[in-house]
Amino acid sequence: MNPMLPEITKLLQLQERDQRIRTLQKELKDVPKHEALAKSQLAGDTAAVEAGSIKAKETEVKIKSVELDIQTRQNSIKRLHDQQFETRKNDEFQAMGIEIKRYEGEINKIEDKQLDLMEELEFAKSLLKDAQAKLAVTQAHVNAELKALVERAEGLKKRLSNLEAERTELAAPIEQQTMDLYTRLFTKKPDAAVVPLAHGICGGCHMKVVSGTIQQLRSEEVVTQCESCGRILYLVE
Fold first, then answer.
1. How do residues 36-74 score in pLDDT, each as one tens digit?
2. CB-based contacts of 28: which residues, under 8 Å, 6+ apart?
3. Helices (H), 172-235
4. CA–CA dist 162, 40 (Å, integer)
5. What CA–CA distance (Å, rounded) separates 178 from 221?
């Protein structure tokens, strides 16, 4: 690298800090996205637990309904037995006996359904337990990931603070007009505001500059810009 204006040397040092600041700011800005992505890992497992819980509760409600049906018929049977003891008519006694048999048959069928529902509940609770265990594992992993992201964000903020302090110190001695030009360029350009000129080619836009620009750089008298992209140039020969 050829000797260059002191202003360019200062700008290159400043730019190096600004590029690092820009990178850290982007990383810090991406932290919430990574947090959301980490939390999204819980969605499937949480849904499985919710579905399992709903299934178990629905089955429990069905079992209670079946138990109520059994109790209702048992009450009817008791009432019919009481009426049998009270009646003196044989035909009424026989008719009540038929009703009792019918209720007993219904109870047998309902009890079969009750057994099926109890097996269904046991299976649902088993699935729910597995889903809860899986969610707990995922939650622990996500918690660790979120903790790491918080620590990363804190580290990024600290590094940013240090770099910004360095930047302020480096920017202080730079002439205001030059500083304003650099700031405008760095804000607009995604890569750099100050770039090398090698073999007559701008290191920013990769366009060939006119000979007058090269001569101006060699004179090392003023800050020189690329006539195509406006970036500040320094000569590499």
1. 999 999 999 999 999 999 999 999 999 999 999 999 999
2. 153, 156, 157, 160
3. 176-188, 211-219
4. 33
5. 13
Q: What is the CATH number of the domain that holds 151?
A: 1.10.287.1490
Q: Spell out where the chain has E strands.
A: 194-198, 201-202, 232-236
155 and 81 co-located in one domain: yes
How many CB atoms lie under 10 A from the CB of residue 223?
19
224 lies in the same domain as 155: no
Nearest to 28 by CA among 143, 201, 155: 155
Whole-number Å distance between alpha carbons of 176 and 192: 19
- The two three-digit tokens of residue 52, written as one number: 């399992």
131 with 49: CB under 8 angstroms? Answer: yes
C-alpha span between 167 and 171 (Å, rounded)? 6
Neighbours of 193 (CB within 10 A): 24
Rg (CA), the chain: 41
Q: What is the pTM of this model?
A: 0.72
d(CA 72, CA 161): 75
Range of the domain at 53: 17-173
Instruction: Examine the pLDDT at 4 and tell me if it is beyond 80.
Output: no
Length of the chain: 237
Question: How many angstroms separate the CA atoms of 42 and 137, rounded?
Answer: 10
Backbone phi and psi for residue 233, each to the nearest 5 degrees, phi listed first: -110, 150
Domain end marker among 156, 173, 190: 173
